[in-house]
Amino acid sequence: MTDLRSAAPALRHSSESAAQTASGYGMLLVAVAALAAGGLAFTQVDRVPDWVFIGWLVLASVAIAFVLCGFYLLQPNQAAAILLFGDYRGTDRSSGLRWSWPWLIKKTISVRANNMISDKIKVNDLRGNPIEMAAQVVWRVTDTAQALFDVDDYKAFVNVQIEAAVRTIGSRYPYDDFEHQEITLRGNHDQVGGELRTELIARLAVAGITVDECGFTHLAYAQEIAGAMLRRQQAQAVVAARKALVEGAVGMVEMALDQLSAKNVVELDDERRAAMVSNLMVVLCGERDTQPVVNAGSLYQ
């Protein structure tokens, strides 16, 4: 059985080439000369036969119309694709007043930088958590032939591919990693943004479009889990703070005992040493201010 996919014709990729056009200022002089010739005919109306006068006017009018129909304007960073009966004949990127044969069709396209911010979309990250993402992308057309003839609507194509790329990158990494052992969307913003740009360039190459800059403008947990994730982040922060506090307290207690022993300030047995460690840890790790108790007796009372 014949594979229908292999039988389907492959997409013909277009490629931009330079069009054979001319500066419009030289042809403007030709139009002025034709107009002057037409005006001269009226000064000779009594000196030449009528058929010569009429023919003179007709030729001057045709010349003026022919020249005027070939004019078109291009602003800086604009281009015009030239078509002859549907066949691509090249692209003109020279700005100013331009001229080409009147029967050629000119399709103007902008090659300026475009800035767009995508809509917020909901994506499942690497761990399956729903998150909301939006991206800002600066793109521009580099190949006018591909943009016009290889995709149906290159601006709509850009919008769809941006959303697809954001979904791809969003599902490739977790939103956050509290142990800081892997790349995350929130913790490695520049690296993930670079991968998003690479993904977009690969997707938009078929349309002759490149991406100059991109980044995330919105990145957050979805509303249905935002509260739970906030409590989780708070708990992780409390645990991390407690861990740092305990490590510091242990170091201070160890330093205090070592100095007391080194300077022979007091000699403690194991039981009293453990009691002092317990008291110091309570003082250093407690959240409330301690209330000291003065012992007026001996150390063992």
Automatic annotation (TrEMBL):
<keyword id="KW-0812">Transmembrane</keyword>
<dbReference type="Pfam" id="PF01145">
    <property type="entry name" value="Band_7"/>
</dbReference>
<feature type="transmembrane region" description="Helical">
    <location>
        <begin position="51"/>
        <end position="74"/>
    </location>
</feature>
<feature type="domain" description="Band 7">
    <location>
        <begin position="69"/>
        <end position="237"/>
    </location>
</feature>
<dbReference type="InterPro" id="IPR036013">
    <property type="entry name" value="Band_7/SPFH_dom_sf"/>
</dbReference>
<protein>
    <recommendedName>
        <fullName>Band 7 domain-containing protein</fullName>
    </recommendedName>
</protein>
<keyword id="KW-1133">Transmembrane helix</keyword>
<feature type="transmembrane region" description="Helical">
    <location>
        <begin position="21"/>
        <end position="45"/>
    </location>
</feature>
<dbReference type="GO" id="GO:0016020">
    <property type="term" value="C:membrane"/>
</dbReference>
<keyword id="KW-0472">Membrane</keyword>
<dbReference type="InterPro" id="IPR001107">
    <property type="entry name" value="Band_7"/>
</dbReference>
